[in-house]
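Need the bound structure for pyridoxal-5'-phosphate, inputs here:
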Amino acid sequence: METDFYYNINNIALKDFGISPEILKISEAVSEEIAPILRDIEQIAEYNQLKVLAAMKRAYLSEYHLYDSTGYGYNDTGRETIEEIYAEVFKAEDALVRPQIVSGTHAITLCLFGVLRPGDELLSATGTPYDTLLGVISGDNCGSLKDFGIKYKEASLKNHKPDFNAIKEKINEKTRMVLIQRSRGYSLRPAISIDEIEELIRFIKSIKHDIICFVDNCYGEFVEVREPIEVGADLCAGSLIKNPGGGIALAGGYVVGKRELVKQCAYRLTAPGLDKSCGPSMFSNRLTAQGLFYSPKVVGEALKGAVYTSRMMEKFGFEVSPKFNEKRSDIVTAAVLGDKDALISFCKGIQAAGPVDAHVQPEPSAMPGYDCKVIMAGGSFIQGSSIELSADGPLREPYAVYIQGGLNFAHVKLGIMKGLQSLMESGKLLNKK
Ligand SMILES: *Cc1c(COP(=O)(O)O)cnc(C)c1O
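Answer from helper R.:
Posting the output first, comments after.
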């Protein structure tokens, strides 16, 4: 039975996707090896699923909330209920969940500009922030924090972890906000776990109790059973085309945190004096709610895929982070491919296994907010969605590919096999273990 079952899967993988028997055989062994880890992931997903359902029930989410408002968007009870649900799920006082927030970078920007004032200092406690934030913080003459007289300091990581001594040294009476980036970004450091965030925030508040601790939660939602606000963060933000949109929300971002801070972010999103009460949901309420409902399950599928990805890439001799059996706090896996052609070749393989645009070849190109060319493979239903299986990386040393997402585990498996197949065919699978 077992053999027939695999035979059929392998047959279609070979016939329709050109996956070689050698890769299929290793994939089968890896699938068996990681089974116990996948069970743990399913338990976390189930817990988070109930958390979301409980919040929906408590907020009396109703059929009429799924319709949308237009124009100013006043009296949009659907939008208000969804924000109440987000606040509940993230254990926050208030939330802003809007399709007008165009990306994760935009959501984070709202938090920085909403809260910081000229003369204040921002300290990054987790080293250099995500690429697209560099322009936001210190761009020239583009309305950056720097342009508005807001200073920036950075405490570099030490052995890939927050350096408490460096953080203490860089906090002074002007330090108003500390930025903590949970996910790795385009770097080889692991995600900062919720336990580590808890310890970090406790330490920061012990030095200066009124510092606002802000967490960039992109790629982190529902990976663990707790979220940053629960461990002391004052404000937290992310993208709806990553984890919490569940692959269903068509666009948007969210901010959750202390009521007063979320209000400041709303002033920044719309206008000072206008607050959360305006902003039309247009076509977003149904899909934002449904996406949140799907999110714990989808994040679980992406995580199963991530564990498989780490083990497969390692089996073929690539350095990976995190390793398949290490604790995760984001959905990203980094694999060092070592050269430009290998990076491009692997991404082409991922693209060829996607549901949309599988016939298209991704090419490296300049992207707004990045300082070098970036290659992005996706083939997603929603443009740029990275809760859907995607692989990308900046064309710079050490030519690492960052792989994340996957609405279902089977697709991730195929994508990784196809990526490896593409490497094999371009002669880049040299030191196979
Ligand atoms: C993706 C990401 C961002 C930026 O989000 P965009 O939606 O791409 O603008 C910021 N921080 C981290 C850690 C991210 O992963």
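Comments: The pocket of pyridoxal-5'-phosphate is lined by residues 103-105, 130, 132, 181, 183, 185, 216, 218-219, 239 (CB under 6 Å). The chain has a mean pLDDT of 95.
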